[in-house]
Design goal:
This protein is mainly α. The chain contains 13 helices and no strands. Helix 4 runs antiparallel to helix 6 and helix 12 packs antiparallel against helix 13.
Length: about 280
């Protein structure tokens, strides 16, 4: 056998660019940190146009409706209006319009990825699906809480400034005022997480929005058609009634205690998010 044949039979060594062993050690197979998932969700949330526009609409509607309501009340104020008047609730009336906006934004955080198919890329990067949902909840919850509390305080201060004398107005030191302002922001935030849980279960934008609106607006109309004794028993479990209770100084006799009702609303949100996590794990993307 000549030298050329021996060279052909010899094993060949494939060379390539050197591998940085530090990168391999830094990202071991199957390990995905929560901080990385949070950064990913924050990037997605802040770079989507619908997020900015939804937050703008939330701010405009909440503050605008509250300002209009308080200005109109002050313009037509008569001394007899003081009896049973709740100035704090009036200045926070925009909350009941903002709840629809925060719900739609929360739904889009989840359903938009399913409708566009980008959820496959997210799950390919982070195969641990509960971690993806947890990151969405934490990022959206933090943004919603900050924005909703700022909007609540702005609505309150603007509303009370417009309710000048002789109209009845309050300050944060007035009984129940601070609780109502802080509670309205908390209510919107948890309601958003409630909607996010619905979106994780349904995964379709139109279907999730329809379910959210049905629970929030249609369910109270259905319950109001029940016999009075049954209506009184069921109404206090509705998210809408819990929200009204949070921002009102005068509590409805059949309602849960303020923070007890809020705890129930938190329970609703947690239950939907847990079910949504189970659905996300068991269903294909």
């Amino acid at each position: 056998m000549n030298s050329s044949s021996k060279a052909m039979d010899a094993p060949r060594t494939v060379t390539g660019p050197p591998v940085d062993q530090r990168l391999l050690r830094a990202t071991p197979p199957g390990h995905y940190s929560l901080s990385g998932a949070l950064r990913s969700e924050w990037t997605k949330l802040r770079t989507v146009r619908s997020t900015l526009w939804s937050l703008v609409v939330l701010v405009v509607i909440s503050i605008g409706v509250s300002a209009l309501a308080t200005a109109e009340t002050r313009a037509h104020w008569v001394p007899g209006d003081a009896l049973g008047f709740d100035a704090t609730r009036l200045s926070l009336i925009g909350v009941f319009f903002a709840q629809l906006v925060i719900g739609v934004l929360a739904i889009l955080v989840v359903s938009a990825e399913y409708s566009t198919g980008t959820i496959r890329s997210s799950l390919a990067a982070i195969p641990r699906r509960p971690l993806v949902l947890l990151a969405k909840v934490m990022v959206f919850g933090a943004v919603a809480l900050i924005v909703c509390e700022l909007v609540a305080f702005a609505s309150y201060f603007i509303g009370q400034a417009l309710l000048s004398a002789p109209a009845v107005h309050t300050t944060l030191s007035s009984p129940g005022a601070l609780r109502a302002v802080v509670g309205s922001g908390l209510y919107l935030c948890v309601l958003g997480l409630f909607a996010l849980g619905l979106a994780a279960i349904i995964r379709h934008t139109a279907g999730a929005i329809g379910a959210f609106v049905g629970i929030l607006l249609v369910a109270p109309l259905i319950v109001s058609a029940l016999p009075h004794s049954l209506f009184v028993s069921v109404e206090r479990f509705l998210p809408d009634r819990i929200g009204q209770n949070l921002i009102s100084f005068h509590q409805h006799p059949s309602s849960f205690p303020v923070w007890g009702g809020f705890a129930l609303l938190c329970g609703y949100a947690v239950a939907l998010l847990v079910i949504g996590g189970v659905v996300m794990v068991r269903r294909d993307a």
